[in-house]
Amino acid sequence: MTATVIAALVIVMAPAGHAFPSSGRSVPHASDVNVDGWVWPLAGFRLDRPFVAPAHRYGPGHRGVDLQAMGGLDVRAPAAGTVAFAGQVAGRGVLTIDHGDGLVTTLEPIQTTLLPGAAVARSEWVGIVGVGGHASPGSLHFGVRLHGEYVNPMLLLGEVPRAVLLPCC
Fold first, then answer.
1. What distance lies between CA 46 and its chain's CA centroid?
2. What pLDDT, in 10s, does the model give residues 94-134?
3. What is the pTM of this model?
4. Which domains does the chain have, with CATH numbers?
5. Fewer CB within 10 Å: C terminus or N terminus of the chain?
């Protein structure tokens, strides 16, 4: 009998309902993303709905994370950047921040007074959680795109360990 080695891909995700405090800690440099010191857009929250990558570009999935605000509705910039869009989309407030190097975040629903072209600093107040969209009341959807493709925002915040191949058997 020959021994067979099976490699298992283990991806660790935080379960829905898990509460995260604001850490503000730096993320290790990743070869494909140049990030430095990203912070959560809410000071205190519970993860309502995790990121679910679609099987293909137009497939179903959840292209971001939904955060239930706990202790306040103030929204802050996860990293420094420039407001690319601020306005209504399908009846809900949307704020898009371009962070450079192909990284763009979208926060919704949000009420903001910011205008496109405004510079924002990391952790700077950018608005308050609004109403509308798919997120439950009091929740903020936080999406991140890298060169136009959605990525799990938790990777930029140091909350999801990298996938590890483990030998089996």
1. 13
2. 999 999 999 999 999 999 999 999 999 999 999 999 998 88
3. 0.74
4. 6-168 (2.70.70.10)
5. N
